[in-house]
Amino acid sequence: MKQKEDYMEVDLAKLMRALWHKAWAIILAAAIFGSVAFAYTQYLVTPLYKARTLLYVNNSSISVGSTKVSISQGDLTAAQSLVDTYIIILKTRTTLNEVIEQSGVGYSSEQLEKMISASPVDSTEIFRVEVTSPNPKEAELLANTIGQVLPGKIASVVEGSSVRIVDYAVEPAHQASPSMTKNVTLGALLGALLACGIIIIAQLRDDLIHDTDYLLQNYDIPVLAVIPDLMSTAKDRSGYYGSGQRKGQYLKASEQGGNKRG
User: Fold this and answer.
1) How far apart, in whole angstroms, are the C-alpha atoms of residue 59 and residue 126?
2) Is 122 left (phi over 0), alpha (psi -120 to 50) or beta?
3) N or C: which end of the chain has fewer CB within 10 A?
4) pLDDT given at position 204
5) Rounded Cα–Cα distance for residues 169 and 167 (Å)
6) What is the pTM assigned to this prediction?
C-alpha cells in the first residue's frame, strides 16, 4: 500500500502580496545595509592606487642558453611565450631587490612581488606592468623604476633581446579600489534579499488561520460559523459592541437613568 507523500503548496500570489505589504521593511533593510557598506568602505578600507607602464619586446633572433628562437613580426604566439618569460624574470628576487634599492622603498622582495602584476596586451609583443600601492606617488615611482631595471635584467638572461618603454607611469589621480558605488550597491542588494528571505520564510511557516478564505482554499469543508472578536477596536459590527467607546456610552446612559429614578 502506497503512503500519501507530504507536500507543501506554495501560493506565489500570496507571497508577492506579503512582499508588497512589507515593502517598507525591504527598503529599510536595503538602506541600512547600504549605509553600513558605505561606512565600511569610507573609514575601514585602505584605498589602493595603480600605476602602469608599458614595455615593448623586439626580438628578431634571440637565444636562451643554447636554444635559438627566431620569430617574425606576425608570430604572435611566439611573442606571447617570450612575454611570459619576461614576466617571470620581472618577479625574480634579484630583479625585485634591485628595484627596491633604486626606488628606496622599505619593502621586502616578497611584499613587492604581491604589489606587482604583469600581463601581455592582447597577445602582442607589448606587456603591461602594474604596481598597486596605498600611496599614488609610490605606485608611480615603483612602476617607472621597474621600467628602468627590467630591460637590463632581461638582456643579461636572454641574448639578443630588446625591451623598450612604450609608456611611462604617471601618478594615478583616482583610486583603483575599493569602489564605493559597487560596495554600496552590493550592500543594499544584500539587505533587500535578506529581508525578502525573512518575509518569505515567515509567510511559509505561518500556519495560523487568519480568515475564512484560508479554510475554503485549503480544506474542502464548509464554514458553519464565525466567532467575532469582541476585543477588537475596529469599527465593524462584530467588534463595535466590545469597544471602549460603546462601553463608556452604556455606563453613561445607565448613570443618567439612575439619577432620573433617584
Assistant:
1) 12
2) left
3) N
4) 85
5) 7
6) 0.66
